[in-house]
Amino acid sequence: MWTPTKTKKYGVAVYNWRGETRYGLPLEIGETVQILEECAGWFRGFSTKNRSIKGIFPASYIYLKLCKIDNEGLFESVIPIEDPVVREVTLVLREWGNIWKRLFVDRETYKFSTLWKVMRELLDWRRQLLTGTLTQDQMRELKLKITSKIDWGNRKLGLDLVPRVGAHMVDPDTMSVVELYHVHVQSAENSQGASARGTMKRKEARKVHTHHLYFCMRDFGHHIGEDTEMYFSLYDTKKAKYISERFLVRISKEGFSNYVEKLHSNCTIFTDLGNADLTCDMWLVAHVMRMGRMLYSDSSKKSSGSSSHSVPAHQLFKRPHGCAVLNINDILLNKDLLPGGSNDEREFTFKVYQGEEKDFHQLHELIIKKQSNKYNPLSGQPNYGIVISLKVLHGELLQVREENPLIFKNISLTKKLGFSDVIMPGDVRNDLYLTLEKGEFERGGKSTGKNIEVTILVLDSEGKVLENCLWGASGMDGTNEYQSMIVYHHNSPWWSETIRLAVPIDKFYGSHIRLEYRHCSTRDKTDNKKLFGFSFARLMEAGGATLRDGTHELYIYKCEDRVRLESSSYLQLPSSARDTSVHISSASTLAGAFSRSSKESVYVHTLLCSTKLTQNVDLLSLLQWKEHPEMIQEALNRVLRLNGEELVKFLQDVLDALFSMFSTEDGNSTTHSGLVFHVLVSIFSLLDDSKFEHFKPVMDAYIKGHFAAALVYKGLLSSVQHCAEWVSSTDKQEPIQKCFRSLEYIFKFIIQSRLLFSRATGGQYEDSFKKDLYSVFTALNKMLATSSDVILPTQVALLHSISAVYEQLIHVLPILKITKLATVMLESLPRELLPQLTQAKLTAIRNLVTSKLFTDDESRNLLLSTSCKHLRVHLAHRDELRLCTEILGEILSFLFKQRQTQEQGKVNNCLHHDVEILCLTTLDMLIQTVLIIIDRSSAVLGCLVACLIGLLQLLDEFHYKRLWEELADRKPKKDFLLRVFLVFRDLVKQEVFPPDWLVIKMVANNVILNALQELAQPLVFNFLDSRCHFDSQLWGNYFNLAVAFLTQPSLQLEKFSEVKREKIIEKYGDMRVLMGFQILSMWSNLGEHKINFIPSMVGPFLEVTLVPESELRKATLHIFFDMMECEQKYHGNFKQVESELIDKLDILISENKGDDEYRQLFNTMLLDRVQSEDPAWKESGAAFISSVTRLLERLLDYRSVIQGDENRDKRMSCTVNLLNFYKNEINRKEMYLRYIYKLHDLHLPAENYTEAGFTMKLYADQLSWTARTLVSDPHYPGQQEWQRKEQLYHQIIKYFDSGKCWEKGIPLCKELAELYERRLFDYAKLSQILRTQAKFFDNILTQLRPEPEYFRVGFYGLSFPLFVRNKLFVYRGLEYERIGAFTQRLQTEFPSAQILMKNTPPDDTIINSEGQYIQICNVKPIPEDNPLFVEAGTDIPEKIASFYQVNDVRRFQLDRPVHKGPVDKDNEFKSLWIERTVLVTSSSLPGILRWFEVIEKSEKEVAPVQFACETMESVNKELRQLFNQYTLDRKRNINPFSMRLQGIIDANVMGGISKYQQAFFTQEFSRQHPEFTDHVYRLKTLILDQIQVLESGLYLHGQLAPPGVQPLHRRLQERFAQLKQGLRDLGPMSSRSRGKSQSDNSQTTSIINTPLPPLPTEKKPVAACSSETPSNRSSASSTSAYGHLLSTEEQGTDDEDIYSKPMELLERMNGSVHYPSSHRESLTLPPPPPIPQRETRPRSAGYTMSSNTDTLARTPTRGGNDYSSLPVMRSSRECLDSDGSPVPRPPKPTHQRSHSKPFSFPNNSSGIISTGSPPDGLQLRNSWSESSVEEAPPLPPRGQTPDKRNTGLFIDTSQTPPAPPKRLVKKGSSGVFSIDSVVDISLESSTSEFPESNSDGHDLRDSGYSEFSQTPSSSISNNFNNLSYEDFDLPTHRRMGSGDNTNIMNISPPTISPRTQSFPTPPPIPPKAIFNPPSSLPAALTMPNSLPDSTVKTPNGTLDQVKCSSSIMVENSFGVSSHGGSPGSTVENYSVPRLQTQNSAMGDSPS
Question: Residue 704: enclosing H or E segment and its boundaries?
């Protein structure tokens, strides 16, 4: 039983679950689920990824999390209870995860890897947060790190900014918009500061003043051999002084690493460096001292090296050893740039140098200045110097100590010499620094200098030594005495050693320092340190001031006995020349005891750093004023000049002294009051200095706790008043300004004093106090009212500090009174203010609204009114906008917070009233200001807009009501509304906030949405009612704004990530829907006024309906119905709506709006309305709606393919669809033109020049030759109509020329010629155009034009775009494009489509499947009747006619062989029917596209005998063409001729014609099929015709054959004789059946049609059926006449498609004469490139011409094989000599195009060659099939061994031609058969050019027959249509084989493909050497496949439409293999792209 869960509501999947049960919900690990119900270990719920799908999942796979549930029940939302930062990381990782994968796909490697690292870090940190093991500080730190990393990542990925305070995201509901804006600004700065490493530049709120340098010594790279002391200090080179104490590191003689006396003894922190110190030139100086013997030697080093004996104490001296310096500016400055950066410690190494001892004190300076002659590096090994590490820490010492507790553990601090920049009140320091500088001593009678050591001690007044108060350096303990270093033998030593004296305060007075001087001898005796003198200095001077800072020269007194010093009697003596504390008398008495050495002296420098002691006499005199009352004046004056540091140290004492001087006991003033006030003011103003601002709390503490002068308030008040009054009368404003700046503290003292007084007296004199107070304010106001430049700074100073005073007054005055004082003061300012004063005034207002006064309701009301009044003025003038926005922002934030606290209870009236004041006084001005500055990039704009939004956020309906009352009149109301709408529109359209500030944008949108609901009210109430009041401008603006709001990018939720979308919907819903309904309700309010918005609002509303939100669409689509209805009502139609809708749709859809769902909704909803409401205009409405729907469909199709090169063709289709729509369905000329240009622009890059020409012709056809002026458009200037038409014509002519479509250009040339000749009389242009025209005519005759292939393409399946879905098209291929290349091209265009391998019509499962299937096969064009040719009545030259064979075609045929009735295995021709499909396209090709849809399809069947006629006819035509060529050009290579003859004669002898005889010339056949009698008769006629043609051909061959070919010629003659013998009984029979034939008009078989002997002049009447001019493809598969029959798939081979040309045969047979005689033969083609010479020896059967074969094999071009030795390729139709002169021709070829097989390529029989190995089980031979009735006897040797044939003719298997595009291989179809072979069973095979001796058993003969022998015939025919591409494996060879040159006769036996059906196997081929003669066989032989009906030019010049009777064509049966290379047809150089003219057809025609 499923029960709803109570607590288990939220969980995370911890395993993947595939959801494989019923209702299962698949889950991935990590997915979050919301649980609704549970039952027995299962949960039911949904994944938050997709809330719409609910399902069940196992409870064990879910980890439950705690959560809280909002609004339980149906719409409950579940929020997990977890740390918000953890939750944020989770959501962020999910969002980033998707982006990360996308980056991988887009190959953005850098971003990908960076994001990966960041995500891993976040995961790791999230884990740390969840473990719960961190301290609070660490958690806080980690969260900041996480959020800064997230912000960094979001910024880099272009995601939205997350506004946050600290680490937590802010909730926009908890703060006003203004605050939210500031949070955004701050977060944006922080995220800018975050780096990839996650470190954040901590933006310190205030500047850091204090810095510290952490120092650690890591190593010392010298071995000195004695104990060493190293003193480190910081040195400023600019000032040439040390700025820190010294820090000591001791190193034992064993070396650095052995020395560990105590932890951290090698680390310190140099504290309290100021900003100035960081920027100075700072060096770290290290002094290295040796502690050991006086003289340093290696021996001593060695001896002391052994630890056994150390140096005795009396021989231990501190001796200078070396010095090292390191510049540390870098580390200080770097870290200064990145405060708070995780500045890692950096390590440094620096070298130690030595110099002369006397220079030791300045050695560091010499090194810094690089005076290298004075020093040199320390000698000895090792010597890598000193290694240290440094790190800078920023902030106050306490804070730094907290942040880095580990560093500070047990560490010694090295203090700065002096105070830090900021003195903290609690700092206690009492250090006196003594620097022992230098001494001057007498030589004392010695020749060498002394070794002087100085000992320093501190003694108290009684002469006792003060213990442990001397510090030679930090890092050591305090000592009683300090020994200096010794400079060897020097009487004027410099020591420069600084020591710190830490003397307790109580002992300081009376203490003194004593310096004792000893001479140290080097002798080894115990008393070797001998005292010889001393000096001393008192720590305090007589006046109580401490020893003054600076250098002191001390006297040296002689004394050799230490005992004498113990009495301290010397203190009576002067210590130095400045010492005045000693009476001269006492000094002289002592002089005897201690004689002063006059020439000797010592210099010391002292520096006091003490917060307790002062060296300042002036300060002392102030503090001790009572002792010297007469000196007060002077003391006060001196204090004014004092340094602040001294004053703040003794603040309390000084203030006490000053107040006691200020007034007498009874509160009256004293003589010094004025000056005391002056001093007080200067002390107060000190506190504003950043150095002392920390003392304000000290001052406050003093006021509260210590201040006791209860009577000073009177004096202070009068002093302030006096200042105010004195202002205008003096020029000395400085003291007054100081006073006003310090008013806060002055009033603090006044008020504290008054409170003390009233406490003491019970509130006496209250009134007089208030009176005094008011009079002070009156004086101040008066001062403010004055305008003068002199007092301006004083007024500014007052305004800046006055607000603090008001806050103080709260203690003594009622708050309302104070507010009144404040407002009066603001009002007292003059109207016109200078900018500084304006700023000061606004600053005062800002301070007031943030003060306590503002929290009181009443006073706030007063303050608000005044402030708003001032604000309004400044907003209006737009001056000081920054301050105005700050003030507004503060007010709004305050009111927002107040309102939030009030929310629960009743409405706070005061608050409500405040908002009203704000609204009425500032709203309109704020709007105006925003409107004005929104276009300028003002820095204040963002904040100002936030204020506006914040104000609107506070308004409720009552405020709006008040606003409308206030704007009572129509005009101001209208102006206000217009401005609001404009501002809102700008806010929506312009990026006021940065694009990634989503949060504030959504808040703003929400506020605008709510505001618009209120703002729409007055529209309805005030601007709608009657006609006169209706304001269309306002309404229009409203609608435009609403639309802009709804369509703004930040609301288009579907474009956002899931996480973002959910967040927005959860918080605000889809605001577009709400706005849409608002628009709808406003629209419905309009009533009759709707007509005002037609058509202007059609576009905007269309944009609304296009928003992909179905609710919104359903609501708003009805508006269009209203519009139609409305316009219909007013205008009787809705043309405007229609026109506008169509225009705008076109634009909007191209902007990527709208989708298919929209199209359906549009259609169904509006149609439903039209149907249900049944308006009068129902019909036109429905028509309009459906036409818009169709337009939408086309536009969406167009948009879906608008990008990507692979979509270019689809774009063309869609463009044409649109273009036709705009032309035919709604006549929109400008749109029509727009798409014409688009189509044209698509054709050009694709090089579809002909199509581009036709496209532009569409435009040209719209124009006439008038002088009407046309407007300019982007493509053409404004010009007259005829000029534009002329310009277009020239452009089109150029395109037709580039596309070789000259026939289409000529009429245009003629039209232009007419224009130039008859109308413009511009003969220059006329001559030019005529030249162009002439060139076109020349080109037609001379240029090579490849014939295009045509392909039938079906697109099946529902996932195709609508414009091709389940439709059939005929495509016109590109130049030389065969089916393989074409298929590949289509596959790149439709990459997901599958190619169907069968040509059978697809069944419903495919048509309705979700996939994509494409079916492709070749089709053959059926030429249309050309009226020109019909009228001509003469032979049309082949060159001219050939164009119309394959151009201007709309009808196409494809043939599919089928067997009916019993199949005779021995003779399949009997039952071979052809199923012929004729397709009609919507337009002729070529046209404006390269493909058109099939609009009509018809099928019929062709009987076997009829097909035999077609086949024979095409072969005859081909032969005639070939013979014509050789007649005209006798120098041609004879090989193709020989091969063609051989192919046909051999094939016929072997069975081609005999098969026909057996099949159709029997009594039985006549009896069974009386209806075919005419065809039988016609077949006989054609056979006899062929015999005559062959005879004339042989005769010609005999004349042309060189000696080497003569043997072959003789053999041919023998075979021909045999052939004639076999046919001798045909004659009588033909006459017998003649009678019948007459009945068949269509095929008159009169004597006229009977073949005559070849007479050169013979003219044949055109046979009625000559409709088909031979097309280049006529030999469809050139191999066999049946090439056409091949199944499409087989055709699939590149080369020829089955369907390609058979039609021609058929038609010929059927007698549909298309043109009387299109003879291509009559055109000469330019000679093909010369073919490389081949040997002339006769080629006999086995010899295949090697030279071309390879080419053939290789080139898949559509042309014939390239026989290199062949003469130039010509079209078979060429009948002119190459020079164009007609030559007598041999009997008329019946075939037009002979693809003669140049040499026999084996027909590859069945593709063998290319595949290289026969299909399994099939042995392919070229001969018919092995199952043929008899095996062909081996061919007699013919001049060469049979294998040679491989050299030439055979396509070498090794070079397989490129494989055609892969398709599924059909089972059972062996890949071996090439199409040709299949279909083209060419006669050649019979000729078996390749002797059968093929060892591999493939008979590679020319016969086009592949060996079907082994396949049962049925399989052959079935496969006919089922061959897969692979079936044709060898496009090349196929092409070759069946291609042009393949079958000589191209009469292929009907067997289509071995698999199609078994045909009766052809009779074996009689052994004949097939010689592949140098391609010179007559074409006629070769082209059996040529168009069946091709009209052939007879030798006498008439065109004969030869009806090939089928008998000839049977390929193998006749032995005609289509390969024969007819010179004309086949002989195309393979290497040359095939002469497409004639041959192409054959070559490629689908076999």
Answer: helix 696-705
The HSE-up count of residue 1835 (CA atoms within 13 Å, CB side) is: 39
CA Rg value for the chain: 56
- pLDDT tens for each residue of 901-925: 876 555 677 888 888 888 888 888 8
Pairing of strands 1449-1459, 1279-1280: unpaired
What residue has token string 């769902």? 1157
C-beta of residue 770 within 8 angstroms of C-beta of residue 813: yes
Which pairing describes strands 1902-1903 and 1999-2001: parallel, antiparallel, or unpaired?
unpaired
- Percent of the chain residues topping a pLDDT of 70: 75
Task: Report the length, in residues, of the chain.
Answer: 2047
Residue linked to tokens 């030429």: 1423
- The answer to whether the beta carbons of residues 636 and 622 sit under 8 Å apart is yes
Instruction: Give the per-residue pLDDT at 1784.
Output: 42
Cβ contact 2014:2007 at 8 Å: yes
Contact 1744, 1889 (CB under 8 A): yes
Which whole number is the average pLDDT over 1113-1136? Answer: 83
Residue spans of beta strands (DSSP E) within 1638-1720: none
Rounded CA-CA distance 1371/1360 in Å is 17
- Helices (H), ranges, 1626-1686: 1626-1632, 1634-1639
Paired with 438 in beta bridges are 494, 603
Token digits of residue 1771: 């079209």
| Token duo for residue 1842 | 């049979």
In the three-class reduction of DSSP (H, G, I as helix; E, B as strand; rest coil), residue 2035 is classed as coil
Q: Is the dihedral of CA 1823, 1829, 1833, 1839 positive or negative?
A: negative
Q: How far, CA to CA in Å, does 808 sit from each of 816, 851, 988?
A: 14, 11, 46
Dihedral angle over CA of 1399, 1404, 1409, 1415, nearest 10: 10
Tell me if the bond preceding 1095 is cis, omega within 30° of 0.
yes
CA distance 304 to 315: 13
Question: Which tokens belong to 1156?
Answer: 């298919």
pLDDT band, residue 720 (cuts 50/70/90): confident
DSSP category for residue 1436: B
- Residue 61 pLDDT class (50, 70, 90 cuts): very high
Question: Is 104 buried (19+), middle (13-18) or exposed (0-12) by CB count in 10 A?
Answer: middle
DSSP letter assigned to residue 1276 = B
What are the structure tokens assigned to 1633, written together? 């059946």
Beta bridge partners of 610: 430
* Cα 931 from Cα 709, distance rounded (Å): 58
Residue-wise DSSP of 92-161:
HHHHHHHHHHHHHHTT-HHHHHHHHHHHHHHHHHHHHHHHT-S-HHHHHHHHHHHHHHHHHHHHHTT---
**Using CA atoms, how far apart are residues 1264 and 1284, in angstroms rounded to an integer?**
9
State the Cα–Cα distance between residues 1170 and 1155, nearest whole angstrom: 23
Label the pairing between strands 32-39 and 353-355. unpaired
How far from the centroid of its chain's Cα atoms is residue 1059's Cα?
Answer: 21
Q: What is the pLDDT of residues 1130-1149, one digit of tens each?
A: 888 878 888 888 888 877 77
Q: What are phi and psi of 286, to 5 degrees?
A: -120, 125
Q: Which of 333, 345, 394 is nearest to 203 (CA)?
A: 394
Are 1680 and 1985 in contact by the 8 Å Cβ rule? The answer is yes
Give the CA dihedral 605, 611, 615, 619, nearest 10 degrees: 160
pLDDT tens digits for range 1710-1768: 444 343 333 433 333 344 444 344 443 444 434 333 333 343 333 343 344 333 333 34
If residue 894 lies in a helix (H) or strand (E), which one and from where to where?
Answer: helix 881-902
Mean pLDDT of 368-388: 85
Q: In the predicted model, is pLDDT for residue 60 greater than 90?
A: yes
Cβ(1397)–Cβ(1924) below 8 Å: yes
Q: Which of 1508, 1502, 1500, 1538 is nearest to 1522 (CA)?
A: 1538
